[in-house]
Amino acid sequence: MNVLVTGANGQLGTHMRLKTVGSNHHYFFTDIEELDITDVAAIRSFVKQNGISAIVNCAAYTNVDKAESDEVAADMINHIAVGYMADIMAEVGGLLVHVSTDYVFGGNLYNTPLPEDAQTNPTGAYGRTKLAGEHAIIHSGCRYIILRTAWLYSEYGKNFCKTMLNLTATKPALTVVFDQVGTPTYAGDLANAIAFILENGLDKGNEGVYHYGNEGVCSWYDFTQAIARQAGNTQCSISPCHSSEYPSPVVRPSYSVLDKSKFKHTFGMSIPYWVDSLKVCLEGLTK
Ligand SMILES: NC(=O)c1ccc[n+]([C@@H]2O[C@H](COP(=O)([O-])OP(=O)(O)OC[C@H]3O[C@@H](n4cnc5c(N)ncnc54)[C@H](OP(=O)(O)O)[C@@H]3O)[C@@H](O)[C@H]2O)c1
Q1: Is the minimum distance from the CB of 129 to ligand 1 under 6 angstroms?
Q2: Residues 214, 191: contact at Cβ < 8 Å?
Q3: 34 Cβ neighbours under 8 A, 6+ residues apart
């Protein structure tokens, strides 16, 4: 099978490159320089010329704060372009593997892990555009797997883990919010899950929406404590604070733990605990 991976220079895309080494499939890795997903003619011609029968879309507009003042651009990438890829996969009878987000939820106060069919209710532009992207896929008639994830981090690009690794090494004190709870998700684990599905043909008969993140639950404060401890950055004093002390253009979900039961039952894959995956990432960063 020929597989196109878009946004391949991002966190997830870079891990997709690593996890598919030695695969029986033929992967084509592109980012915006080679293939802009908002260019429908370019995608159609790439798919036709290269006999692509699956797309793994790792491209996205991921700047949650900036999306508030730039919703048209975010919508173009997270919704309209996703619809283009879904329509093209429908034309060729292909599969679209797409990654979405816990930001499709929000607004309500939850205190229990969210199943796939929980009521969506995005409170900001990023979540709205990602939810519109999901709907475009579902209505396209293509075969699809949508994996909603949260709090993605890795050795690559800019992310919370790398920022806190640096700050806890260089600052004497930090305050970090403790009233937003979720699960950090290592991009290497998510890429592994996607590769596992494709390598084993598990997409067939299992099309649908799934939640995928690492196991466990923590606040951003706990995540920062774990990063500092595992990295040996013990000289930085880390204190918990409320989200209200950090004004932000977006209301962030206070509890966005995803229930991953459907993913585990369907694909028979175990999921690593977030603390163990953090160790893997930090080892990767210090190599
Ligand atoms: N990061 C998180 O915390 C998080 C949480 C939940 C879900 N997700 C979802 O997980 C997926 C992967 O996220 P990530 O963190 O790996 O994203 P990322 O690191 O921001 O990577 C996205 C990649 O897409 C590229 N891109 C942007 N516009 C494009 C276009 N028009 N055509 C082709 N490529 C384009 C970006 O290039 P530039 O860098 O040049 O823009 C970047 O290389 C996304 O769907 C995201 O919404 C992320």
Answers
A1: no
A2: no
A3: none
Task: Provide the 10 A C-beta neighbour count for residue 2.
Answer: 14
Relative to the CA of 12, which ligand 1 atom is closest? 16
Residue 157 Cβ < 6 Å to ligand 1: yes
3-class secondary structure, 143: strand
The CATH T-level fold of domain 2-158+183-216+256-273 is Rossmann fold (3.40.50)
Query: What beta strand segments (E) does 47-167 contain?
Result: 52-57, 95-101, 143-149, 152-153
- How far from 166 is each of 160, 179, 285, CA to CA, in Å? 10, 23, 11
**DSSP codes, 247-274:** --SSPPPSB-PBP-HHHHHHH-----BH
Give the other-Cβ count within 10 Å of 111's Cβ. Answer: 8
Task: Specify whether 212 is catalytic.
Answer: no
**Local structure of residue 78 (DSSP, 8 states):** I
Which of 9, 15, 7 lies closest to 191 in space, CA to CA? 15
Q: What is the pTM of this model?
A: 0.97
pLDDT tens, 84-107?
Answer: 999 999 999 999 999 999 999 986
64 lines ligand 1 (CB under 6 A): no
Cβ atoms within 10 Å of 157's Cβ, excluding its own? 16
Q: What's the 3-state SS for 158-198?
A: CCHHHHHHHHHHHCCEEEEECCCEECCEEHHHHHHHHHHHH
Task: Show me where the domains of the chain are located.
Answer: 2-158+183-216+256-273
184-240, pLDDT tens digit by residue? 999 999 999 999 999 999 999 999 999 999 999 999 999 999 999 999 999 999 999
